[in-house]
Amino acid sequence: MSESKSVAVVGAGIFGLSLALALHEKGYTVTVFDRHPYDETQYDPDADENVQAASVDHNKIFRASYGTKLHYQRLALESREAWVAINKSSGADLFVPSGMLRVQPSDELGALEKETLANMERDGIRETQFVKSLAGDRERAKAGGWDAKLLEFPIPGSNDARTYEAVLDSLGGFMRCSNACLYFQQLAASKGVRFIFGNEQGDVESIVEEAVGDKKKANGVRTKDGVIHKAHVVAVAGGSFTTQLIPDLSTHLESSGGSLATFKIDKEDKALWEKYSPEQFPVITWKSNPRNKTGKDTGSVYVLPRTPDGLVKIGFRGVKFTNFQPAPEGCPFVQDGKWSIPMSPKDSCTIPEAAVDSIRQFVKIFLPDFDQVPFYSTKLCWYTDSLDNSFVIDHVPTYTDNSLFVCTGGSGHGAKFLPILGKHAADILHNGDKATSFLRPFWRWRPEAPRRNGLEDGPGSPRNIGQAQVE
Ligand SMILES: Cc1cc2nc3c(=O)[nH]c(=O)nc-3n(C[C@H](O)[C@H](O)[C@H](O)COP(=O)(O)OP(=O)(O)OC[C@H]3O[C@@H](n4cnc5c(N)ncnc54)[C@H](O)[C@@H]3O)c2cc1C
């Protein structure tokens, strides 16, 4: 490549870190900006009450189960190999292969599950999956020491003691997300990636640009302290805040809130401490509803094994809540003049009643030990949803010379790819249409994609909890 082109990466979450490291390895001079002082907080989710990055969290699920989306299944398997290698070389357990139990909506396998199993068969990894009702799978689970995690849960109200069908995925588990971010940030810094953190010098207020014909050219970024940082390429990986820096992206992305609640187990309570440890308890996900008539899978609730601090985290994905607010002048895509952006950190501390009800129903069935226990904490954590749940990693076509790049659109499943996402993204940044990554066609700039995945709903939808503030 031409001598050390410089890249300003905006955002030091999972997408920004992974991209920064991979670009550095390709020979770019990389500076990463983030408004949060991660050098001080070390990505600890409890150290900064203002932090809203989805990546700053105790844990996130690792799965390779992706229904018909074989490309994500393969990417997840590539990532899993990298996680296992990182665990080995670092001695840290950043990836925890606790297994994941995918509980079905009834005592039969759901449509999504059948698609997942078919694709696992296709890739020769079907033996890593154990279907509860299949005797052969149960035997294999036993032989591999997985049978204790093939848990049975009675279906409430069934008069013949039926239990939910379930598939135990021995490839699944979780990542210690914040710890992994810290690991990658320190690794990148040690290799020579420069980081500028803090709510003055690290907060990027705008992209510095000039007009070139009917396009623009990005020349760097301006931070809140007024300093201009020149760069050949600006790469924005700002998670659910990306549209606020690049309003062009509003055609592709919407911020929505995922509801999280935790319980805390006291270490002295030895029985619970052991029962919910990753050694004994898998990640559990429950599709509470079968696929609907329009082909949509909804109604998912999940729980992860306890953290070393005793936190048991439950997430509700059944409804992703939007927060529609007046959009800025000239924003290329708006719905009734509004767009959905993250709520303030303070307003993100409580979760809507619909989420509380679904989580409580889940707890009653799957975590009866906590049935009457108050939540230790609640939080809305902001997704960056794309039109089709695929990421948006590409040059912005309204800018010349490939000077503006985006790396975002995690859509609730990006964390697991931290070790390898950047390699694919850097290939696209460096090679554009000549990139060899098999993800290139899926991650393109694609304003023509049909408006789906809830992005068609707009401010009139009951999902919009920003109503009170905008009306
Ligand atoms: C509720 C929830 C559950 C999820 N569960 C899973 C899961 O189980 N498994 C999984 O694999 N993935 C999961 N995900 C997805 C995963 O967390 C995200 O895909 C990933 O963390 C996104 O990383 P990011 O770097 O794009 O964004 P973020 O983590 O949000 O980071 C963006 C960073 O950019 C910074 N920034 C933004 N704008 C600016 C600016 N102008 N100036 C300076 N800094 C800026 C922010 O401060 C932030 O640090 C989940 C997401 C959510 C919301």
TrEMBL record:
Entries under InterPro entries matching the protein: FAD-dep_OxRdtase, FAD/NAD-bd_sf, MTOX
FAD dependent oxidoreductase domain: residues covered: 7-427
Pfam family, one: DAO
Entries under SUPFAM superfamilies matching the protein: FAD/NAD(P)-binding domain
Cofactor names: FAD
Key word Magnesium present: no
Top-level taxon of the source organism: Eukaryota
Keyword Glycoprotein: no
GO molecular function, a single term: flavin adenine dinucleotide binding
Annotated spans, Disordered: 450-471
Keywords on record: FAD, Flavoprotein, Oxidoreductase
Family to which the UniProt record says this protein belongs: Belongs to the MSOX/MTOX family.
Name this polypeptide is given: FAD dependent oxidoreductase
